[in-house]
Amino acid sequence: LIATLAALAVAAIIGFPFVRAIDRTSNRLFAIGCSLLVGCGVIALDLFALSALDLAWLRGSVAVSLALVVSVALVVSSRKARATPPSSEKLPYTPGAAIFDLATLLTILGHAVYATWTPQREWDYFGIWGLKARTFFEVSGIDWHFLHTNISHPDYPLLVPFLLDYLAIARGAWDERWSGLLFTALCAAVILVARGLLAEELRSHRWAAAGALVMACPTLNVWIGLGEAAVMAYGCAGILSIRHGIRTARPQLIRLGAILIGFSAWSKNEGLALIAITCAVTFLVAPRDSWRMMIESLWPALAIPSIWLVTRALLTLPTDFLTGPVLGRVIAHLRDFRTVAGAFLRYPPDQPWLWLALIISILICWREAITTERFLTLVAGLQLAVLAGQSLATPWDIRAHIQLSWNRLPHQIAPALVFLAIVLLMPRLGGAASRRLPPGEPGTVMTPSS
Amino acid sequence: MSIELPPRHILRGVIGNWRRVLSVLLLTGILVAGYRPMFLSFLVGRIPKRPAPIDGIDRRPLRERADSTPPDLLQFLQSVRAQTNKRDTIGLVLPPPFGGFSYVYWRGSYVLAGRTVLLPPSVRSICGARTVATWRDPFTCEGQAVAWEGSGGRLLRSVN
Questions:
Q1: Interface ipTM
Q2: Which terminus of chain A, N or C, has fewer Cβ atoms within 10 Å?
Q3: Does the pLDDT of residue A346 top 60, yes or no?
Q4: Which residues in chain A have Cβ-Cβ distances shorter than 8 Å to B22?
């Protein structure tokens, strides 16, 4: 337990200079959440680079390589000019906020116990994520032969196996119980990101803490050991950061968000769809004269996953969704629309009442959803459509596919939708929340007097 | 006859209140519908007793229930790992409902990581493996002898 907690803390420390090198204008909660996510991403890329250079994953080699990378980030970070602390740093912390934060913390602790009460147990952990991680750990690096020959989704990106390996390297032995904490940490990072953004936007710790509590459970992903928590964490934190960057005209937040969604594609293939959608929607909602700035900010979203995509292409790793006549399968499934629709109705996502409440909230606030929150509404809506639509391309029995995947896939984007509902509904409550930061006014964020 | 409407500022106030009430209800609804009391149960030490499906196929996460894989089967897989070396090729023979591409097959592949576990196969290809691990099954291969026995299973190795 101690070794795992220490390794996760080190990951956050590694990520911190990277986050500060990119953005110095955000509040601490947001920065800590992003640091953990970026730190985990940097570690995953570091392990990949070591294997690509044929260097074994030993404690020494991993520590030295990470120290080198972090020192570069520290140099860049130290050269950045000091920014004015955001106004949210000076907000009073009230007892009301403390109660909401305590409830959120207890929920996160409950998730941590849930994630570790038993060793890893999920089918896909044994068949995909854990199998790859443990095989790599056996040979202290990527087993390229295994990657090429195993039948268990060889095309799936490797961030989650790498992070499981990182914990094992830090511990000095393979572990299948405390590694569950990794998934709690990734989810908790998204809650921190949202908590920080809400404090900045609603200009009240009490409302922000209440919002974080509402977000907590849908964000604490229950599929431990799989890629779900990682793709959700990077994807949602990324699009929330980009949304805030567009809202407050801060390109550094868009760049940070781009890095995060880049890592979402290292977590699961759904991250690739999220990148395409986010980039397209960003250009759709951004004014034409800011397109150049958007390109300069969004490039990491394409650069980061391209490393894996090139590797995948070089190794010719097959994707089951893209093998055989894809279009033929999609058309055949669309022709059998009644069966497909029936399967979606029969096998709803986990927490169906939550989804109903989210849909009602967005419909009631539809005007704000398609104007001030156009970016988040479009990205989350389109990603949800892609997650549903991908089942049409399955080479397997579509009913079984929907039955066993549609319970968890929508939860990859659920936190973003809950955040959307919060920023749509909270300003209607009056009080501090109604004095929400107006969009497109960066000055209101940057100056402490605001 | 015309119906007299209340003054506009009162109407606005009533609508404003309704919007506020509706927003509170919806936010509460999202919190309640999204909340998982299970996390608090775990926090106070309530551990699930009901076993997960034995075939491992469930829409719910398997860790929400107790492990249904027989403990001696898990022990057997661990013993096979201890008795074999990295890069060994192992055939795994398990009785129903654990045979084929089952949950236990993948669990076994994971426990035996570093070795090559043959795909659930024909008897001929299994017997081609230098090592065969068989659990609660009278399976034998010509030219192979029992190298180890325990936890209800046997490890067969090529005599040559």
A1: 0.88
A2: N
A3: yes
A4: 364, 428
